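Dock 3-isopropylmalic acid; give full complex structure.
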Amino acid sequence: MYKIAVLPGDGIGAEIVPEAIKALNAIAERFGHEFVFNEALIGGAAYDVEGTPLPPATLELCRQSDAVLLGAIGGPKWDNLPAKLRPEVGALLPLRKELELYANLRPSVLFPGLLQASTLKEEVIEGVDILVIRELTGGLYFGEKSREKTADGGQKATDILSYSTYEIERIVRFAYEAARQRRKILCSVDKANVLESSRLWRETVSDLAKEYPDVETTHMYVDNCSMQLIRNPRQFDVIVTENMFGDILTDEASMLTGSIGMLPSASIGGQVGLYEPSHGSAPDIAGQQKANPLATILSAAMMLRYSFQLEAEARLIEKAVKDVLAEGYRTPDLMEAGKKLLNTIEMGDMVAEHISKGE
Ligand code: IPM
Ligand code: MG
């Protein structure tokens, strides 16, 4: 029996999470597993009811569970709250920190059916399979923040970017181990020509590289990396980088897959893993069943793989997604002429059906 905390959150979160649960239920039925789902409030939805975006009961439920499935958080309704009460700073970041989820895995994989869905040329993206490993509990996101008034009547705002050797080593080792399971090429991304924290990052990677002679190590500046991802994405296997660079590069890398609605994520490193799509709460399309649930469904597959070690089950979900796309089914974000348009629920049903009957 596996206990899964379910946190739909805000915006499209409430629409995409049930579709991932459908996929998990289809897996449970086929393989004879028992998944127990316990739902709790987070983000703006929690703030509206409890006055805080991360109620203690929600955090406690996560700690008591074997894994957490999260939808998305935030929206214009809560954008003007003081930072600590905003869904992002008040809920998602403390949740990542409290659960010690220092490793964020975001695989950018192009499903063959989506070769024409991307805004990029087919010959550039064909065969793309990149794993970005983003450090998730350090850097600018968690550094000290302050505001002060200046003599000229303006203000000064500060965000501190700091990394310790320990924090860098831990994520980079993780990335080396992941590279060993793949094509054995690790690209460490930094801004060592300008930032002191990046110089320590690069030195630390260079030291660790000696322990992994079987993995090819390269270093790249983040600005160059953002260009190379579009110019020649197939050069990358595993990318490891600090928190904010990883945030930005993974949105960019998502377009290699056709849509940000295809990018899942796993946040691991502590006792309980957290699985969520890499995209946001999309308030503009919320409540209309237009959202693509595939990133969330693929995040559920990552949960099976990384939290429960159910590799065959994870692969079956991924295969179902691949087949559904190959058969021409699309949510609006991926729609092209000649394809079959599905809404969020229909896409979830289609994937679950393929899991139930697939080989
Ligand atoms: C992500 C998101 C979050 C982040 C936001 C919602 C705080 O953009 O998971 O990439 O910046 O980490
Ligand atoms: Mg982001």
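Observed: Residues 118-257 form a domain with the Isopropylmalate Dehydrogenase fold (CATH 3.40.718.10).
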